[in-house]
Amino acid sequence: MERTLAIHTQKLMKSYGSVRALRGLDLEVRRGEIFGYLGPNGSGKTTTIRCLLDLIRPNGGTVRVLGIDPQADPVAVRARAGYLPGELHFDENMSVESALRYLNSLRANKHAGGHVADWDYVRHLCEHIDLSLKLAIKNLSKGNKQKVGVVQALMHRPELLLLDEPTFGLDPLVQQEVLRLVKEARQEGATVFFSSHILSEVQEIADRVGIIRQGVVVEVAETASLINRALHRARIRFRQPADCNALANVPGVKVLSQDDGQAITLQIEGEMDRLIKTLAAFEVIEFETERPSLEEIFLAYYEADRNHVQ
Amino acid sequence: MFTIFRNAFSHYRGQILGWGLSLGALCLYMARFYNTIAAQKESYMKMVDAFPKELMAFFSTSDASEMFTPSGFLNIEFFSYMPIIIGLFAILAGSGMLAGDEESGTMDLILAHPVSRTVLFVGRALAFLVATIGILAINWVGFLIGLPGSGLGLNALEIGQPFISLFATLMLFGTMALVLSMLLPSRRMAAMTSGILMIASFFITTLARLDENLETLAKISPMNYYQGGMAIDGLKWGWVIGLLGISALFVLIAWWRFERRDIRVGGEGGWRIPMILRLRQRQEAAGNDG
Where residue A62 falls among pLDDT bands split at 50, 70, 90? Predict the structure, then answer.
């Protein structure tokens, strides 16, 4: 199974003092896929990625990245991975070019199977995201620094891309360009594991999505199926005021708003069959359904959690 | 490793030139200033005799006539306080060698590349070592330029010996700052603690010359094993090796700690007492199980 998985964690645990950041995290990311890793701030996304690169040491569980234990051979993992940290900082005294050349020279570790970037490809990446190599890092805006981070992560064409909030701070046009480069990397065979709380971009490019909540992966699914199978929203208009209690009592249905009994907005979890059968008793003028955004699904997980806590 | 070394060393270039050239100019001046002192020995002798012995103790001597020997003169006028002056560089460089990158947030990016922690550690430590040697070498060259017109009558080897003693002392405080930066939550705290220990060591060693009661304490003070200018008359290699040996031990502890601990994302860390935390976690786990 390790051959088909780019990332495999089992019961991964990590604590910072009394704070338990990962509480037995099980995760499988297949080779060649784009995997969106969703969760709010503090849910354990960055901790997971830093464990994968052996920047921090887990308190328990196992990790395999490209079949390698990062604690046993971190250099081999890093030689084959590209990483964009969530908190990105460069040596401020360097120019973009000298920073990239320095980082590139760190990859010249042939013993670990590392390979340096082709400089023409670096220029190609910079052109795509409108980044000048001549600029001094200290004069760059946050967004432009993020562009440098994206280039350094991609420039050596890694087998595995670990991107922590890759489009953070970028304007919408550059965001699109970065997502395009990520897709391009996948087309060339790379596995992409990226964390985000910008759900629209995950929805746009991820093949599968994992949702992490309080250090545990609570859901992993194909992005499309997660959207399809979960919440739907329906707006219904009746010819005459209707008693909506019958609808509210349908399992999985929640009344979001009601207007004079003639218009109602419902949230439906799961299949719609029972709702439609119940609606047959009413005279319906309009029936509109809306597929939920990933954001709504994501919030639903957290809503459920809050209710559970209460 | 060479890439790491070269990059780290490039950060020291300004400091090597700054510390090296400014103190090198002072070395040149001191070599020539000896002629002035020697020419006015009697009047200087009267002045120095008037100094309280407590003040003379801070110049690592109790005998005013030492001022007019090459070793005594260089000790009083230059080498006695150099561990404190260049010690500032050593402590700041040692404490920031790795913790500085963690606190600025650049460490994550470096260690995301195929570079082991050991290679990073060794590359940085070598850069610090070479930078310290660089500063001292420029100072030494300052003396060499000044010696031909000076009445000191020393050769290159003789004037080099106090620098070996100084180097060993700087290594001790620099590596002490390094190991503390791996053990304490922040670079700032490591630098401050090392600075306090360095100043305390200087005062204990100095005051032990006046107060016999401090002699026992002075034996564990690193400055006690710094010869300063007196090394011109003969270097105590045992002291040098002892100081370098303890430095090597500090380096090993720092490396061991760096290999095993989590890399901070940025900013300063917090205090953790692992045993107590582990105990608390066990108690929590037992509570949850119940």
Answer: very high
Total-model pTM: 0.83
Inter-chain CB proximity A75 and B115 less than 8 Å: yes
Chain A residues in contact with B263 (beta carbon < 8 A): 50, 55-56
3-class DSSP string for A204-245: HHCCEEEEEECCEEEEEEEHHHHHHHCEEEEEEEECCCCCCH
Q: What does the block give as tokens for B1?
A: 């490793």
Instruction: Read off the pLDDT of residues A80-130 as tens digits, 9 standing for 90 and up.
Output: 999 999 888 998 889 999 999 999 999 887 666 667 888 999 999 998 888
**Chain A residues within an 8 Å CB radius of B108:** 50, 55, 83, 85, 87
The token pair at A42 is 């503090």
> What interface predicted TM-score (ipTM) does this complex get?
0.79
Q: Are A127 and A69 contacting, i.e. CB atoms less than 8 angstroms apart?
A: no
B289 pLDDT more than 50:
no
Looking at residues B140-154, what average pLDDT do you find?
89
Nearest to A106 among B110, B263, B284 (CB): B110
Instruction: Looking at the complex, report in whole angstroms how far the Cα of residue A194 sits from the nearest Cα belonging to chain B.
Output: 15
Interface contact flag, B114 A107, Cβ < 8 Å = yes
- CA dist B205 → A189, B71, B202, B210 (Å): 66, 19, 5, 10
Residues 6+ apart with CB under 8 A from A118: none
B218 touches chain A (CB under 8 A): no
Cα–Cα separations (whole angstroms), residue B34 to B41, B55, B85, B146: 10, 20, 21, 10
Q: Report phi then psi at B157, rounded to 5.
A: -70, -45
List CB contacts (< 8 A) between B116 and chain A.
74-75
A105 to B3: CB separation less than 8 angstroms, yes or no: yes
Q: Which residues of A touch B265 (CB under 8 A)?
A: 46, 50, 85, 87
Tokens of A122: 């670096």
| Mean pLDDT computed over A185-201 | 87
Residue carrying structure tokens 């890092």: A137
Of A55, A243, B14, A54, the closest CA to residue A65 belongs to A54
**Residue B69: other Cβ atoms inside 10 A:** 16
* Residue A249, both tokens: 């009592």
Q: What is the pLDDT of residue B97?
A: 94
A58 CB-near residues (< 8 Å, 6+ apart)? A12, A13, A14, A22, A51, A71
- Are the beta carbons of B263 and A56 separated by less than 8 Å? yes
- Asked if the Cβ–Cβ distance from B266 to A87 is below 8 Å, we say yes
Using DSSP bridges, classify how beta strands A81-84 and A160-164 pair: parallel, antiparallel or unpaired.
Answer: parallel
Q: For tokens 């060698």, what's the residue?
A: B97
